[in-house]
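To whoever is covering the structure queue this week,

Two jobs came back overnight. Logging them here so there's a record in the thread.

Job A:
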Amino acid sequence: MNSFPRNFFFRLLCSPVLLSLLFACARQGSPTGGPKDTDPPEVVAEASTRNFSTRFSERRIELAFNEWVVLSDVGTQVVISPPLKKRPDITLKGKKVIVEFSKEDTLRPNTTYTINFGTAVKDFHENNPAKDLRFVFSTGDFLDSLSANGIVVDAFTSEPLENISVMLYDDFTDSVVRKEKPYYFARTDKSGQFSIQNVKEGVYKVAAIDDSSGDLKWDGQNERIGFADSLLALTDSANASLSIKLFKNQPTFRLFDNKTLRFGLVQLIYTDSPDAVAIRPETPDVRYTVEKVKDTLFVWYDMSAPAAWQLMANDDTVRVRNLSREDFLKNHALAEASAPAAASTSRRQTAPTAPAPSVTKTVSQHPTKQATISFNSILASVDTAQWLMLIDSTPFFDFSAQLDSTLPRNINVQVAWEFGKTYTLTLLPGAVTDFYGVPNADTLVRILNVYTEKQLGGLNLTVENLIPGTQYVLQLLNGTVVEEERVFDTEGTEKKLIFTNLVAAAYTARLIEDRNRNGRWDTGDYFARRQPEPIFTKKLDPLRANWEVEASMQAGEETRRNKTE
């Protein structure tokens, strides 16, 4: 009977195979793999405060869910319309979200309230947000059922904007957007869409703001704004569909900031283009010239006996520090700039004063455009006797070089370029001299490869639905660079524009309805009730080399409607 060894069972229990089987059976937990949970949490109505109820007088709302949930971004995601004086406490208890109104707050009589949770409530494991989670109640006998829907887009780019507060007011004064919270509001989603629901019948003022502060009030300066041209009348028979353009409000023109960058250069920064600013030094010994770049004036100055001095910019007095001319000239060298002067667009950007390394540059040259060379200082004179030009290694003399009258750090080189040729331009020492009498000390070489005819293409663009008697600006963009610009008036509703010798690229056409006829796009002014100038864009089919594209674009029905109002 004892045919097995005594320790057989002990050895069997200790065998690696059996131990691994026992360990696998003993492990408990969720199986690995399987489909990912994509279902959002849902409200269990039977265990929650009744939604869409009337004669509501509760101070506490409980929403029970079918799974464990978490709260996130409650401060920005939970939106209550009409807004309360004090935000209620929103907490979690088990699978419930609890909303408790402050004892200091009193609900308005005969009013429908909406609590929109946005994406604040998510499931515990996968962070799936509860879908369209809203709690609606009325303190009166019925629920208001009207709505205002629409979209908010950027006034310049027409791109939809997310998380913009769209607001309805029962106060029609312009100052209400700065002083009071709205009666109703909602925030836009990723597609720029908004929906203000359960609104009562009435007439409302409509505004939208990029509410960075979260206080539902427009700060008037830093936050963008948009508005409807007329009051919104909501009745039982009609809801509303709105399209609002958001813009940075036209600032009051003023001197925003000034800096003495170094000896010889003062920067005056304005809130808008300083076209009408007159500069006048109060010291007769000062020699100066003025350069305008976007919203900035650069005042380049020189004086034989440096001292502190003052300049007048219209009615503003700017004090300029006493700085060493000798120290400046020790470190100053006239050299080619790393980018054209016109590229300086930022309000905080200073003039490029540091010299770029003197190297040979090879660039592509358009056959119908002048070549531009930019320097790090205002230029005073050009000595073409120190300029050499070769065309395919042959000396070439039929060119001219002139200082740019509007961008005085630039020299424009005019040549009747030949397709496909290579031009080598050499500026010997002393070829140019700047405002301070400093010539270029290094030799500058630029190799210009002119496009061949087969590398270029053409575009025939028809612009339709124009308003007769209106000025337009049509810009042809290659990426963010304006390659071509046409300003035109039209007597009819259609205009055909022909572009030749275009570099092969994917272009975008941008059309501005230039209402004030200043040749550029202008933003809106909320207090003047002026909308931004209408602007329309269209991405064109890519232009291939040695090809011609036929294209059309619409100015848009909105342009015609606004013009006739």
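Job B:
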Amino acid sequence: MTSAGDPTTSAGEHGRPPGPPLDLAMGAFSDEPPWDMTGKELPWRQDIDALRSATARQVPRLLRRRLLPPGRRVLLTALVLGWAVLAWRLIEKRVAVRLDRPEVSRAGLSYRLRKAFERLGPTYIKLGQILSSGEGVFPPELVNEFRLLRDRVPAERFEVVRQVVEADLGRPLEAVFEHFETTPIAAASIAQVHAARLCTGEEVVVKVQRPQVAGLVQRDVAAMNWLAPLLIGRIPVAALANPPALVELFAETIVEELDFRLEADNMLDIAAVLASTGQKAVVVPRPHPELVTRRVLVMERLDGFGWDDVEGMRRAGIDTNAVVRALLIVFLEGATLFGVFHGDLHGGNLLVRPDGRVALLDYGITGRLDEVRRLAFLRLLMGGSINDQRLQLGALRDMGAVPADTDLDALAVDLGLDKPLIDPVTLAPEDLLAEVRDLTKRLLEYGARFPKILMLFVKDLLFVDGSLATLAPDLDLFSEVQEIAAYFTSRYGERIAHDIGIDPRLHPIDMNGVRAAVGVGEDVEALTYRDLQARRELIRRRMEEHRRRAERPTRRPGARGS
């Protein structure tokens, strides 16, 4: 069992009354609190809305257009990345061609890019972390390699950590902590996390921001913003992602992570949402009532199984199907009904406690929706449930994925939504590639973009999708969809009808539409995730073989055989 602490001290030992913690009424916290959040003034939370607004105003300044490249950082970036690509071409790519093993080429490039990102520092490490969450979108070699950027980034020296903590808390380290582990539990792009014990006896973890990271991020975003327009249409992935829009989204995301007071506020907001829903399956660590600053965050220490420790969970009697189901429901409830959700789900941010509850960690990236976008999200999911494509397109427009004046009927026709869905397994590889290229071209012609909130939402869904492969591979997806739809209908049907004018109690889920969305016929009664993976693997192998044939050199007429 992975341990992030062992909060075994009883409530009474810290002077609290026996019985359930009082602060469970205000947040979904653990039952063994190191401190009680009830009635605390929380000085770091004062004027938090003004702080959040001021942080958002930094983004336009970071993204202002420059006539000249922003200094030496652009040159360094080009040199580091250029050397990585050159070395790959000279070594791994040649070996892969000789052996006819393209996976060797992808693995080599992924490794060299990961090392280059590490050398370039926090901003590029964060980009790598985002790529590592793209299972099913990016090549598996890239995803697996960039996962190492989540918590295996070279750590800052302890002397540097001490300086940051003492400067922000205004006291010597020993005046606050009875014990402070010099080796971090994890080291990531923006910060690293250390286990510690307060002088008052509570076991905690301390998140400490890397020094000078804020200035470095500003320089890197400026460099990315200058380079991004030059990449438009030059490489397929960049053309699909729209580099300038991607840089804008990245800037919006990373500036929020640079102030830990915002993260602590996110923790309390999501804990409050969970408490209001009566959700008992997920817990949030308590931030310390006083020990939170821009660069230091002290919080409750929780323990549990690592997200990938499936065997350990099952030996402990934990229902891993229920674990994934609870995470998905919490995620959907937060986004569609309360307008706030954890925006960076990945295995490093999740522990499964011995009682089966999920400990949700790291709130630096949190999705927040205003009322217009929340209702758009709700319509998007409701449209998918009842197979109303026009409703879904309208929701995407309201979320900013396409311009506000887009003709939705014309868009539906141009995207081929008026035609029957085709099972991708039945398509030849060249036909499937043509379909993807054509769809991408049409979306770009309509001015489509990937709003930040949609990017976070899709990224989280991809993570949940990947989690099914390890925690619940034999779960019947169709039955699960029906159960989750029934949960939302029975619990929130009246509210959904009030919010968007569509009553799910009168419009049951269209399972034939669900089947069509995954490319199977109406005669298919059940589909496990293992079945779905097999279909995806078949498509992947066909595409790989097609790519190999396309790259294999053709013999010239009259050439002698070997």
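Note for Job B: The longest strand covers residues 191-198.

Please reply-all if you pick these up so we don't duplicate work.
Q.
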